[in-house]
Amino acid sequence: MGAVGFLIRLAITAVALWITTLIVPGVDVHGRSGGNTVLTLIVVALIFGLINAVLKPVIRVVGCVFYLLTLGLFALVVNALLFLLTDRIARGLDLPFQVDGFWPAFWGAIVMTVVTWLISVIVPDNLDRR
What we know:
The protein is mainly α.
């Protein structure tokens, strides 16, 4: 993926995160201004993307049996835990992003997945391939 594709994916994730904060109670961004909120969403989207790129494949390999035994439902729990990890890292970086526990993380991860998928269907991420 080129630079343009990366920026498009980052923007899609940031927009999905913003929509998640509007829909899911307990997932919040409290920027001091509109620009601060947008910057926070972009940084948190970057953190979320890095966590998913690094940890999710490892967890899939290690937890393969759980995925099979639960017919994939274990993935929902993993996504919620990765969303909580994003919250912890964002708090460690003093970003105004907050997830208030497991259930907001669970629903937030589901909303993020659905919204990201919907936006990705509409917006192609291969604009830099000519």
